[in-house]
Amino acid sequence: MTLRILGGKFGGRNIKTVRTEKTRPTTSLVRKAVFDILQSSICDATFLDLFAGSGAMGIEALSRGAKSCTFIDSQKEAIRCIEANVKQLGITEYTVVQSDVIAALDKFYTSFDIIYADPPYHHRELYLQLIHKLDEGSVLKDGGVLLIEAKNPSPLEGEELRYLKVKRVRKYGDSLLCEYVRG
Description:
This protein is α/β, with parallel strands linked by helices.
């Protein structure tokens, strides 16, 4: 299966997707919504794509002007797919990390302007670990944006956070897009 990049310098180009039952590509409707939200902040931003799968979100960010992207996924198939996609497009400003996402967040000595996360829908505990790890840590810069895709109803609803503030929650079909700002 392939996905089409929606906008920017790679707009209209196709990339490969991961072919496993563990991976669910972000729909074009949600991808469009994410980049409509980020349109004024994506230029020269550092972007972190968590549970990256094919890398479509990070590649879309780079296509639209992000300075760099770090892709993290635990699956070997996903890492191979991301590497093939960035190579095909001639992208050079990226890092790919094969790791458990929660464990990888402890190893960053840098902060990102924008983080996008699309954990497996059926792992509520993973959502909770992720949001608290990002709230307590410094992986997201002050003023940075965190977007988390989730299944409706949100596994994060009512969670008390110290630094991350919910800006908006939008519904797209069965998916929710939860937008947070740090600070």
